[in-house]
Write a structure and sequence with these properties.
9 helices
């Protein structure tokens, strides 16, 4: 099912169609066969939405300790760490997310954004190019690619 959604995402051109494919993928990423893990994810996501990043990190860390192969727990912890301004730790968690799910468009988008903030334009460009192979018509992607290329040109990279 996931592979089929990714194949359709790669071909999707309309923003509504892209969003529908992404939402289907997110639903699959967010659920496991373990009811307790699913419940812990819900609690962590509620903490994240409430702005309690520390509590969210605690919940996602516990999930990772129990189910280390669960890419979305790594991704959500990366998000919480990013929101706390812990960019290096967030990038580490994104790396772990991508080890488990190399097509994770959310992690790639976040990684590219942080690399840009850190001034690492060559790596940001590589990530955006990788993302374009997964979802070439993602709204905003072409603009991001142009901006990164312009930044690299300005810096002589």
């Amino acid at each position: 099912m996931l592979d089929e959604l990714f194949a359709r995402l790669r071909l999707a051109t309309a923003p509504a169609e892209i969003e529908a494919m992404q939402n289907g993928i997110w639903q699959l990423w967010l659920t496991t066969e373990d009811v307790a893990i699913n419940k812990a994810m819900e609690v962590g996501m509620r903490a994240l939405q409430a702005g309690d990043h520390g509590l969210a990190i605690e919940h996602f860390t516990r999930i990772i300790q129990v189910k280390g192969d669960f890419a979305e727990a790594w991704n959500k912890r990366a998000t919480a760490r990013y929101l706390r301004g812990e960019y290096r730790a967030s990038l580490d968690d994104i790396r772990e997310t991508l080890r488990r799910e190399p097509r994770h468009f959310g992690a790639l988008w976040g990684q590219a954004g942080m690399l840009r903030q850190l001034g690492d334009y060559p790596r940001a460009l590589r990530v955006l190019v990788r993302l374009s192979g997964i979802c070439p018509h993602l709204p905003g992607l072409q603009q991001q690619l142009r901006e990164v290329r312009e930044q690299m040109e300005e810096e002589g990279l």
